[in-house]
Automatic annotation (TrEMBL):
<dbReference type="InterPro" id="IPR003754">
    <property type="entry name" value="4pyrrol_synth_uPrphyn_synth"/>
</dbReference>
<protein>
    <recommendedName>
        <fullName>Uroporphyrinogen-III synthase</fullName>
        <ecNumber>4.2.1.75</ecNumber>
    </recommendedName>
</protein>
<keyword id="KW-0627">Porphyrin biosynthesis</keyword>
<feature type="domain" description="Tetrapyrrole biosynthesis uroporphyrinogen III synthase">
    <location>
        <begin position="14"/>
        <end position="229"/>
    </location>
</feature>
<dbReference type="GO" id="GO:0006782">
    <property type="term" value="P:protoporphyrinogen IX biosynthetic process"/>
</dbReference>
<dbReference type="Pfam" id="PF02602">
    <property type="entry name" value="HEM4"/>
</dbReference>
<keyword id="KW-0456">Lyase</keyword>
<dbReference type="GO" id="GO:0006780">
    <property type="term" value="P:uroporphyrinogen III biosynthetic process"/>
</dbReference>
<comment type="pathway">
    <text>Porphyrin-containing compound metabolism; protoporphyrin-IX biosynthesis; coproporphyrinogen-III from 5-aminolevulinate: step 3/4.</text>
</comment>
<comment type="function">
    <text>Catalyzes cyclization of the linear tetrapyrrole, hydroxymethylbilane, to the macrocyclic uroporphyrinogen III.</text>
</comment>
<dbReference type="GO" id="GO:0004852">
    <property type="term" value="F:uroporphyrinogen-III synthase activity"/>
</dbReference>
<comment type="similarity">
    <text>Belongs to the uroporphyrinogen-III synthase family.</text>
</comment>
<dbReference type="InterPro" id="IPR039793">
    <property type="entry name" value="UROS/Hem4"/>
</dbReference>
<dbReference type="InterPro" id="IPR036108">
    <property type="entry name" value="4pyrrol_syn_uPrphyn_synt_sf"/>
</dbReference>
Length: 236
């Protein structure tokens, strides 16, 4: 079973390896990329750190990470927690699953008012910061990276797919869903996605897929890659 992976690197290659371990053939065609943002390495007063993605850690300046090394860190999920630990951060919770869960975990451990530093990307929803501020926390956002669209040329698309289509497409983000919509309008794609099912991390992400019938969309039980791949396993 061939599966299209369009998330930015290094995530695409990591996902492709997990797919291969499960017996799938990955077609890797990143449609977005993450780039670091210059940020002054001044952590300021901090009682705890929230990390919204592995990319937020990967692109953080080393001096900033060193300043945050002793603060308790709440990661949105397991893979983000792994990236944070590898960067030398003190992860105390990685079971949140999403921004709502992250806000609840922080509130349970650190009653307001406290100073929370959030490592995040420029392209994001404001759920976490909104929940924390509404709860009386002092929130400092540090945007460590931006997500930019990629526009592969016809040769790159043809090389990634070969002559065959795919049976499944993994959709990791709403931004990625929009880029997939643009890809589907490219004549070079032909019929390669005509019979694909779209496996989405959440309903919100599925809703961002343009012109795809609901019966061709599957939603993971939780917004994380392991439940997404488990869903794919069940429908192979």
């Amino acid at each position: 079973m061939r599966v299209l992976v369009t998330r930015p690197e290094p995530g695409s290659s990591e996902t492709a390896a997990r797919l291969a371990a499960r017996g799938f053939e990955a077609v890797v065609l990143p449609l977005t990329e993450t780039v670091p943002l210059a940020e002054a390495a001044d952590a300021g007063p901090v009682d705890a750190v929230a990390v919204t993605s592995a990319n937020a850690v990967r692109h953080a300046p080393r001096p900033l990470l060193d300043m945050l090394a002793r603060a308790p860190v709440f990661a949105v999920g397991t893979r983000t927690g792994i990236a944070a630990r590898e960067a030398g951060l003190n992860v105390v919770d990685e079971a949140a699953g999403d921004a709502e869960g992250l806000a609840r975990a922080i509130a349970a451990a650190f009653p307001a008012p406290r100073a929370i530093t959030v490592l995040c990307g420029r392209v994001r929803r404001d759920v976490l910061e909104g929940r924390l501020r509404d709860g009386g926390y002092r929130v400092r956002l540090i945007e460590t990276y931006n997500t930019l669209p990629l526009d592969p040329d016809d040769a790159a698309i043809a090389a990634a797919f070969g002559e065959a289509g795919v049976s499944a497409v993994l959709v990791h983000s709403a931004n990625g869903a929009l880029q997939i919509g643009k890809l589907m309008s490219r004549p070079v794609l032909g019929t390669r996605l005509d019979h694909a099912t779209f496996y989405c991390l959440s309903q919100r992400i599925a809703d961002a897929l343009p012109t795809i019938a609901s019966e061709r969309k599957k939603i993971a039980a939780q917004p994380a890659e392991e439940p997404l791949l488990a869903l794919l396993d069940r429908h192979r």
